[in-house]
Design brief:
Distance between the termini: 36 Å
CATH superfamily of one domain: Trypsin-like serine proteases
Shape: elongated
Mean pLDDT: 83
Order of helices and strands: HHHEEEHEEEEEEEEEE
Low-confidence stretches: 1-29
Number of helices: 4
CATH topology of one domain: Thrombin, subunit H
């Protein structure tokens, strides 16, 4: 227990030193900038250049905004309660995504099994993006993959669309959506860092036999479990399920079920 404290203090003083160094550098840059200030005409010219050169980046941002706009109504926040081993109640929170099957009629929520494990249907609440709260009418779970499917029945549900995770390549851009730390409708952005991650130790209470995870550096935190990983076509290519972390929070290594 002493090692984390030492690391934390070391990090604190390192950060302080870095801030002091930046303060000195910024002060130097500021005085140099005053000596080389742009004229009004030069400033207008630079802004015109920025407008032209930033166009492709703005287009990329607009694409991400469009993906977020079309998929947000399909992402849900899930709360469940189950009996604790020593009495009392244990609450789990996570995320999920509304999906539709071409073979089975109805709308379903796809999430992680560990989000709803051992909870009764009446103890599971699904919070929709429009503020409604609904409950599942049936639950299927698969311990080997840590996947759960919940049938839901409510009007005006908007399902997301499945993508093909086999077509996802390392370096492809993705968005992770869900409710990290209970902050619903959160979106983070990153790339696929690796494919086919197996033999991960997910903890003594997480036995996932069928592992073939996508690895991403999109920020995934507690509460993101069960939320979708979205490709640039706006389609679901994975279900976020775990992180590798020494701190309990995001360190840029997240895993999604393809």
């Amino acid at each position: 227990m002493r090692i984390p404290s030492v690391l934390l203090i070391g990090g604190f003083f390192f950060s302080g030193g870095l801030m002091l160094g930046l303060g000195y550098q910024l002060g130097t840059i500021h005085s140099t900038a005053n000596a080389n200030a742009l004229t009004l005409t030069e400033t207008q010219k630079v802004y015109q250049e920025l407008d032209r050169e930033a166009g492709s980046l703005v287009d990329g941002s607009e694409l991400l905004a469009k993906i977020a706009h079309v998929t947000t109504p399909s992402v849900v926040h899930i709360q469940s309660e189950r009996a604790g081993e020593r009495g009392g109640r244990v609450e789990e929170t996570g995320s999920g995504v509304l999906m539709q099957s071409s073979k089975v009629e109805g709308i379903f929520v796809v999430t992680n099994r560990h989000v709803v494990a051992d909870a009764r249907m009446e103890d599971i609440s699904i919070h929709l993006s429009d503020g409604r709260v609904i409950r599942p009418t049936r639950i299927w779970t698969d311990e080997a993959t840590d996947v759960a499917v919940l049938r839901v029945n409510a009007p005006n549900l908007i399902p997301a669309r499945w993508g093909n995770s086999d077509e996802v390549e390392i370096g492809h851009m993705v968005l992770a959506m869900g409710s990290p730390f209970g902050l619903s409708q959160s979106i983070t952005y990153g790339i696929i860092s690796a494919k086919g991650r197996r033999s991960l130790n997910l903890g003594s209470d997480r036995t996932v036999l069928n592992q073939d995870f996508l690895q991403t550096d999109a920020a995934i935190n507690p509460g993101n479990s069960g939320g979708p990983l979205i490709g640039l076509s706006g389609r679901v290519v994975g279900i976020n399920t775990a992180i590798a972390s020494n701190s309990g929070g995001n360190e840029g290594i997240g895993f999604s079920i393809p």
